[in-house]
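#lab-general

N.A. 3:47 PM
ok so I finally got the sequence cleaned up, no stray characters, all 152 residues accounted for. can someone with queue access submit it? mine expired

B.Y. 3:52 PM
send it over

N.A. 3:53 PM
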Amino acid sequence: MQRFLVVANLTLGGPALAAVLDELIASGDEVEFRVVAPVERAPYVAIPWEPAGVVPDDLAGLEKQLGDEATARADRLVARLREAGAHASGVIRAGDPVDAIEKELAASGPYDRIVISTLPAGASRWLKMDLPRRVERHVSVPVTTVIAERES
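B.Y. 4:20 PM
back already:
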């Protein structure tokens, strides 16, 4: 059985990621996916500014909302993968994506490949922090980077 670690958050359920995962399922081998959605904690999350320029004072509420949204996206992807015949599970991990990946590898590795799905350049904090290359330097498995298409 081939095991794949899928790391994404805002792009979970997007067409670019779906296409890559469909290819892996279609390979003919039995596959297992572990979906990890890193949810960063304040002050690292992008905080929506009110029109008056005031930061919302309910950062705990914002973090919960971001976690709930990530959970819903991950649940939908796990259900879709299972419907396609793959073994799939998911987890939401608080913290930055590097920490989330390290924790997941320690908890349930090894994997045959890590698939990182991110927003397009300019919008992606993960690309700005060079996440795919940082992960490649720390793991001994191939890393595939999926970049979501810009919305029209």
